[in-house]
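Dear support,

I submitted the protein below through the web form. The confirmation email said the job was done, but the results page showed an empty box. After a refresh the structure appeared. I'm attaching both so you can tell me whether what I see now is the final result or a partial one.
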Amino acid sequence: MTDHRPASDARQLMSVVLAGATILLVVHALGRFIYTPLLPYLVGDGQLTASEGASVATWNYLGYLIGALLAVRWYRPDQIRISLPVAMGVHVLTTLAQTQVEPVAALSGLRLINGIVNGVVFVQAPALILEWLVRRNRTGASGLVYVGVGVGLLVSSFLVSGTADMLSGPARWWPAALLSIPLALWATWRLVGLNVPARIQRDDGSYADKGPLLDRASIPLFLSYAGAGLGYILPMTFLPLLTKTQLPDGHWLVDGSWLLVAVVTIPTPIIWSFLGSRFGDLPALRLNYLIQFLGALAVVVWPGPLGIVLCALLVGSTFVGTVLLTQRIGRALHPHQGPRLSAAMVALYSVTQMAGPWLTRQWLDAGGTLVGAFTLGAVALGWGLLLALFVPRPEDWHAR
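What the results page shows now:
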């Protein structure tokens, strides 16, 4: 008699990973990063100035911080099964509301709320899936969840550029809002039914919420991750706007820069998962930081098309890898605190992400240029690379 269980297990695995990728596509791409290609059009429509656009982005990142902090509190799987569908419902409602508001203050408030639920979901969904995978000895598949971010960037690029001539002002949010509804419903339903213990236990039977997260091994990892948050958020927020200011109307990079980021982001979770498995997550993370640093620096050293293309390719091909590799290293250092550790890392990451647009606004208001702001991003990524050199290998740390 043929055993169909391996095939059934494979289908279940792909279904769960697909649901995770879909939920990240919805909240992180259609909810958050679609603002990046939308921003030049919203500025062109007269709804926002460049400075106001940076301010609106800051409110979204503040919300992301609040959401991550809430996830530190609501990190247990039994809590996630409640908060995840609530957060997804709020995401859909705020995205729909963005189609109706024009004042900057109202848009800022909605982006704040949207950021909160984004932070909650971006922590809880991958953490829940990772715990489910660990119990099936399939941890290496965890990186596939982040494919949803890359696919979502590509989808968001087509949604914005494909409707650019048909919509204006707040109505530009309609494509993202309508697509979010069915995707959010299916992905949420699939994930809340995962069979994961209500609380994560150590081998000695104690619960993981009793131990410290910060020690000599994890502190440099946290500080390195903070540099990543500040470093990548500048190109991921302002690269299309920088392109529009540097290149003439009609140049293919005006819309194409974000498309390049989206295309190269799609395979990166698979690539960085493989590199981490082949050479070790820590060496792969250090290489990741180096490439990302060069990408942020490119627009400073070579203003114009060459720098823009290099920035799009190098940052787009690395920033998701930073997330998945750091999360895996952190869990290896603290094996039984997965969701709690993930939430703490994302909270710190979001602090520096919030600082990026805020600092950019101060710089622009003081008469600075976007190119100058990108210098700050390169410095932050250099900091991340430096601190990553002080993170011990998990096997060495546990064998000490």
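Response: this is the final, complete result; the empty box was a page-load delay. Residues 229 and 349 are 5 Å apart (CA to CA).
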